[in-house]
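<backbone_tokenisation>
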Amino acid sequence: MTKPSKEFINRAPVGYSHIAKVNRGTLIYLAGQVSTDPSGKLVGEGNFEAQVDRVFANVKAALETAGATMADIVKLNTYVVASVPPDDIPKMRAIRDRYVNVEKPPASTLVVVSRLARPEWLIEIEAVAAVDE
């Protein structure tokens, strides 16, 4: 029996995988994606939910360019600026769940930072994907 190319191991608390194990395939490392359109213009100024949605759309587009899908993500690192109210974080998860495989969610880290490279950015997400060969 062939081992699956990716294994997701969950522990408490739920909502993300604590471990994503890649047994074979091609790894894709995606640089931090922010809330800009293809021309570099900010999308969702001052609107956290709009920025989250745009960032995930950018993650999806970047992965597709590399021959991957959102289901191939094994690790997400999310950086949110401290000015975003803690009550808005569950809104981010609801948007994320429209993009990722909620049955086998990626291993994830959320970090609150003082600011990002441009002060109008509220969120930045980087990803690692594993594509079956």
User: Anything to note?
Assistant: The domain at 26-131 is CATH 3.30.1330.40 (60s Ribosomal Protein L30; Chain: A;). The first strand starts at residue 6 and ends at 9. The first helix runs from residue 48 to 65. Strands lie at 6-9, 19-22, 26-33, 73-81, 107-113, 123-131.
